[in-house]
Every structure is written in structure tokens, then in C-alpha cells.
Amino acid sequence: MNFEDYQLYFQSVLNGEQTIHPYENPAYVNYARLNWSRQQRWSKVGELNEELAGLIKSIKSGQQWIVITEPWCGDAAHTLPFIYKLICLNPLIKPDLQLRDTSPFLIEHYLTGPNQSKSIPKLVIRNDEGDDLLVWGPRPLACQQLYNRLREEQAEEEETKLQLQKWYNQDKGKSFQQELLTAFTAL
Fold first, then answer.
1. Residue 150 falls within a domain, yes or no?
2. Which tens digits make up the pLDDT trace of 120-131?
3. In the chain, how many domains are there?
């Protein structure tokens, strides 16, 4: 789906129109409600890295940017608005948002870490021939390190969420964009 369709799907979750798993669980709808607010904030105030923006504008052949996501995903709420802003810079980039928890389960091809988890968001950038150029996700390295440390310390789930939210608010999308810039320059 494109970004507009994803936003409509997101709204249908918030309006209670989606009762497929996991949205039959009120906790997931509450996560989605928080994430809608976060996503809207970054859409308004998130600033693009000028060097990355220039690089994206200079892409001369078609690309498909696939984002594997879900409205309940807090990490996606902090990353997706920046991905959308970047895609809008170049008409040769075609977005395709895939839901992690719904067929065709593309996430099965992009599992994370030694535990092979279905962590999201995942950004998969493909060329016109359908070859993966790069895969990013589920969160910036520094944020992942914070998450790993909190898990090792056996922090409560709510404390972990709070610390990650604080990290994203302080980072303002800079780490994700820098990682994407580094990955693109290495191609």
C-alpha cells in the first residue's frame, strides 16, 4: 500500500474498524493511538538531513522503498515520517508499505538478530530489477544498544518504553538519517 492507504488503515485501527489480530486487544489500539500522535508530530516538525536529502534527490534510476510496519509499533512512529519525507523528494522512488502481521508476511525474509525476531520497522530499498540494495531496521544503532542494555538489566517493560521514547525525542530522527546516508554512500 502507499502512504495514504497506510494512513487510512491506521485510522481504521483507531476507529475500532480493524478487529484482526492484534487489534482485538485494546492495549494494541492504545499503542496505535500513541503512535499516531508521535507520527503526526514528526511529520510536522521532523527535519531532514540536508546531505541525505541531496543524495535522495540525485537518484537517477527507479527504486522501491518497502517499509514493513504496523500501527502498534513505537519505533515505526519515530521513523516512518522521515522515510515518507525522503520518498517525496524523488518521483523515481515508489513506496510500498507492508503490514508485518498480515499476509504476505514479507517480514519472514527480513528477520532480525540471532533470535531471528520479526522486529519492525524494516526499510528495504530495491532497485528496478527487484534486487535489495539495502535493508535497515528495526531501530537506530544507539537506540538498539539502549534497548539491549535495558533488556540485560531486566528493566520493566514500561520503563523500557519510556527510555526509548526519551531517546527518540532527543535524537529527532538524526541517527536514522545518518545511518541511511552512510548506507547509501557505501553502495
1. no
2. 999 999 999 999
3. 1
pTM: 0.96
Q: Distance (Å, rounded) from C-alpha 151 to C-alpha 69?
A: 22
Q: Which residue type does 180 have?
A: L
CB 68 within 8 A of CB 110: yes
Per DSSP, the chain holds a count of helices (H) and strands (E) of 7, 4
Residue 180, classified by CB atoms within 10 Å of its CB into exposed (0-12), middle (13-18) or buried (19+), is buried
Q: Which domain holds residue 83?
A: 3-139
Whole-angstrom distance, CA of residue 120 vs CA of residue 143: 13
Contact 118, 60 (CB under 8 A): no
The CATH number covering residue 19 comes to 3.40.30.10
Residue 175 near residue 49 (C-beta atoms within 8 A) = no
Q: Is residue 73 part of a domain?
A: yes
- The answer as to whether 28 is a domain residue is yes
19: in domain: yes
